[in-house]
Amino acid sequence: MKFQRLALIGCGLMGGSFALALREAGLVHTIVGFSASEKTRLRAVELKVIDQACTSLAEAVQDADLVLLAVPVGAMHSSFSAMRDVLQPHTLLMDVGSTKCDVIAAAVATLGDRLSCFVPAHPIAGKEMAGIEHAEASLYQARRTILTPLPKSGIHRLQTAHDVWAAIGCHVSTMTPEAHDATFAAVSHLPHMLAFATVNAITAQPQGAAFLDMAGPGFRDFSRIAASDASVWRDILNANKTEVLTQLALLRTALDQFENALKAGDTAALQQLIQQASAVRSAWTLQAGNACSTASEDN
Amino acid sequence: MKFQRLALIGCGLMGGSFALALREAGLVHTIVGFSASEKTRLRAVELKVIDQACTSLAEAVQDADLVLLAVPVGAMHSSFSAMRDVLQPHTLLMDVGSTKCDVIAAAVATLGDRLSCFVPAHPIAGKEMAGIEHAEASLYQARRTILTPLPKSGIHRLQTAHDVWAAIGCHVSTMTPEAHDATFAAVSHLPHMLAFATVNAITAQPQGAAFLDMAGPGFRDFSRIAASDASVWRDILNANKTEVLTQLALLRTALDQFENALKAGDTAALQQLIQQASAVRSAWTLQAGNACSTASEDN
């Protein structure tokens, strides 16, 4: 498996890291890239993440046998539209979006008979620091990538998609788009929203800055994802809002249980609520690959 | 500064690590320990964390010139009572409780003229794994310890307390008990409750286990503190319930802002909410010592 020309659409952390990983694995001959910002695409050349910057999306996609769409999910629809007429029938097109139903809907609405090119993908990797400057070849190593194939994704193209991610170190799983979006609303999107809201709730208080000065390693890890990119997460939360709101309602119910136990002074109920969370989370840590690499202090 | 006899009351992670650190720093001649569980105190001897196990709290405290009370905050009152009659006037008594107003109230109610022995302390360190097995001499290195002195804590004893924590690697700060409890409700106690509630909300769903199978490094770090010890955190949340409930109400307001923006499809408001959290959290990372030691991936 070797690609002649990778077109990277969106030269940021996720796309840049994919390009670096593919090159390091010897899977690609030439990498061209497009970002809406000229500064970004020139920087991507400067950092040797891409070989050549293109001034339009269509120019990048033309003649590419592999296209990676690594833009915020809110920009997927216009990107699909812009590549529709130049996408080659044999090309493998993948995205890296954190939501899948909305991205697939955009592809279905725009790609026409090129829909068969598309294998939707979500690599469970990233950093809270966005941008091409933070791209690294190892970002996807030992991470999971989820594919949510379409009825039109042929077995051969699906296999190639699987092989690409596996070649750069990912464990590859397959899910339906609906199961994907429900899952990540629960284990990623809502936690991000909680981390954002926690920081905002502290900042809104007159003593907020003084509070933050005292915060320790427990807060550090809990709130790490609150530093994530605003455009990316605006799009994710918005794209998956139905599932996110469902999870938020369930979280409010779980918080009510704590609040009720505290107000009633029911320490047995409180201990039970904590014990069940602690047991589940401790068991999860013991699963392969879930141990924190941090020294894991809290307070 | 060298102590003849450290009495460790509560041979767990926090107390055991303090004992190991003091010994490593050459600050103590003999360490005796008491835990309610015979098994625990024998294990503490076996692991060479303490030199000698005592069968009662009073026996341990008798003749000690340094006492560290490292029990869940709900057990402070009975511990103070049990040591009242054997505490020597010159002894330095400290706790490691994560709440301060309730611990001080218990001391005031029980210690009588020995109240002057007591310098309340809260080292901002720990692990989500409790127990003497996880004790380590380095736990407090480069961490912060907060002292909340009483009017009766003389300047000399306060200085000794400061020197002990500094000698095992801590940055030492002083706060009022009230400011301490408000601060840690915001940056520690509420985040723990949110992490517990998030895990419980996932577990309560039929697909909860499948959701957790897919969770990535963002969830790992966000929820790490959900694995914390149930008895310890039952006591902390209960002891500081007024401040915790105040912070919970503020968090609910911050969550309402996200919910309203999502429901209204107001992506500009959503971006603004995320952007302000992201900016604050990113700036906090840049403060000395706050960088994650983890590889900091998210999804």
Describe the 3D structure.
The structure is a homodimer of 299-residue chains. Chain A is α/β, with parallel strands linked by helices and 299 residues long. Chain A has 2 domains: 3-175, Rossmann fold (3-Layer(aba) Sandwich), CATH 3.40.50.720; 179-285, 6-phosphogluconate dehydrogenase C-terminal like domain (6-phosphogluconate dehydrogenase C-terminal fold). Helices cover 51% and strands 12% of the residues of chain A. Chain A contains 12 helices and 9 strands. In chain A, strands 3-2-1-4-5-6 form a 6-stranded parallel beta sheet. In chain A, helix 1 links the parallel strand 1 (3-9) and strand 2 (28-34). In chain A, helix 4 (76-83) runs parallel beside helix 5 (101-110), helix 7 crosses helix 11 and helix 11 (241-264) packs across helix 12. The interface between A and B is large, with 108 and 107 residues.
Give the oligomer, counting copies of the same chain as homo and different chains as hetero.
homodimer
Named CATH topology of the largest domain in chain A: Rossmann fold
- Largest interface (C-beta under 8 Å): A-B, 108 and 107 residues
- H/E series of chain A: EHEHEHEHEHEEEHEHHHHHH
Offer a quick outline of the entry.
By secondary structure, the first copy, chain A, is an alpha/beta fold.
Provide tags for this entry:
6-phosphogluconate dehydrogenase C-terminal fold, elongated, 299 residues, six-stranded parallel beta sheet, Rossmann fold, three-stranded mixed beta sheet, disordered C terminus, 51% helix, alpha/beta, homodimer
